[in-house]
UniProtKB/TrEMBL annotation:
Domain ABC transporter, first and last residues per copy: 4-246
CDD domains: ABC_MetN_methionine_transporter (cd03258)
Repressor listed as a keyword: no
SUPFAM superfamilies, A to Z: ACT-like, P-loop containing nucleoside triphosphate hydrolases
A GO molecular function held by the record: ATP binding
Protein name per UniProt: Methionine ABC transporter ATP-binding protein
The species this protein was found in: Nocardioides imazamoxiresistens
């Protein structure tokens, strides 16, 4: 059974003032997050990502549908029972949410006290957690004395204090610079592989998904418009929203303005070929061109790595005898996805 399971979940926020309309934040979501995976949820602002995650730890209650977390159906549970469920869930936030008037040590102590961890065990556990996130020497510091990346590492240590089965990360790297983002993502990857903790990660950045997620769900207007293994979504996006997100990292082909500039510099017929891991070797493709004396220039595109697998889109300008160019394009079409660039 999946660690987190949503079936037909809807969340409607009723208006607080007269004249306002209800807001459908989650609109019929089915979702399975399997034990041990890093599951990314991507979407623009207002898509419903935060609400979805808040439903998992029961900070919000579903209007319709069922939610199962770690084998327990949480819809309909009382507050006492929910507290137990929440002990199995850690959470980290964009703005870290540390207690600024407490030291790093006390920030991590707090959840241990709440969970009733015996006093004798607390100190050792804090040292273990700080060592895991590489901040053993910062125990006596206050959050204000730490960098953003260090604060988030404290946030991670605190979230892991009670050995949760699931870690929820809500835009956990959005306030960090690119280098620090990579450090925090590397730490989250260790949380997943070394501690076996399942992670649900919300983001609006596709780069975060590419770097660490195994699976991804794309949200739009409260719905999941597409979900699946990260490589599949990157290499063959189906929904418009997915295509837009993927294109922030990998362009399907040159954008109109880029194309204009390319046309000024290159002559010939433009085609974009989609290269996918396991497809025909590039040399075989280029051999089709050479055999027909078609000259080609690589004018746009690149090769990407997602989950250790490669794919990319390359735009070529082809020149030569029109009949030979036509024959070469026909031959390429039998081997790869090819799009004419107009
Ligand atoms: N407590 C609430 N009361 C009323 N409406 C809410 C509440 N929380 C969220 N919403 C609405 O639900 C919709 C989804 O919001 P949510 O915060 O889940 O989106 P999001 O994808 O996380 O956006 P962001 O990336 O900006 O945080 C939005 O229209 C939002 O205004």
């Amino acid at each position: 059974m999946a660690l987190v399971e949503f079936r037909g979940v809807r969340k409607v926020f009723e208006p607080t003032k007269r004249g306002e309309k209800p807001v459908v934040a989650i609109d019929g979501v089915d979702l399975d997050v399997e034990k041990g995976e890093i599951f990314g949820i991507v979407g623009y602002s207002g898509a419903g990502k935060s609400t979805l995650v808040r439903l998992v730890n029961a900070l919000e209650t579903a209007t319709e549908g069922t939610i199962v977390v770690n084998g327990r159906e949480i819809t309909g549970l009382g507050e006492r029972e929910l507290r137990k469920v929440r002990l199995d869930i850690g959470m980290i936030f964009q703005q870290f949410n540390l207690f600024s008037s407490s030291t790093v040590y006390h920030n991590i102590l707090y959840p241990l006290q709440v969970a009733g961890v015996p006093k004798a065990e607390r100190h050792g556990r804090i040292a273990e957690l700080l060592s895991f996130v590489g901040l053993l020497d910062k125990a006596k510091h206050y959050p204000d004395q730490l960098s953003g990346g260090q604060k988030q590492r404290v946030g991670i240590a605190r979230a892991l204090a009670t050995n949760p089965a699931l870690l929820l990360a809500d835009e956990s790297t959005s306030a960090l610079d690119p280098e620090t983002t990579q450090e925090v993502l590397a730490l989250l990857q260790r949380v997943n592989t070394e501690l076996g903790i399942t992670i649900m990660l919300i983001t609006h950045e596709m780069d975060v998904i590419r770097t660490i997620a195994h699976k991804v769900a794309v949200m739009e207007n409260g719905r999941i418009v597409e979900q699946g293994p990260v490589f599949d979504l990157f290499s063959d996006p189906q929904a418009d929203a997915t295509r837009r997100f993927v294109s922030t990292l990998v362009e399907q082909g040159p954008a109109p303005r880029t194309l204009e500039h390319l046309r000024e510099r290159h002559r010939g017929r433009f085609v974009t070929i989609a290269l996918r891991e396991g497809s025909v070797p590039q040399s075989e493709l280029f051999a089709e061109l050479v055999a027909r004396e078609v000259r080609f220039e690589l004018v746009h595109g690149g090769i990407e790595d997602v989950q250790g697998r490669t794919f990319g889109n390359l735009t070529l300008a082809l020149e030569g005898d029109p009949a030979q160019v036509e024959a070469a394009v026909a031959a390429l079409r039998t081997k790869v996805d090819l799009t004419e660039v107009d």
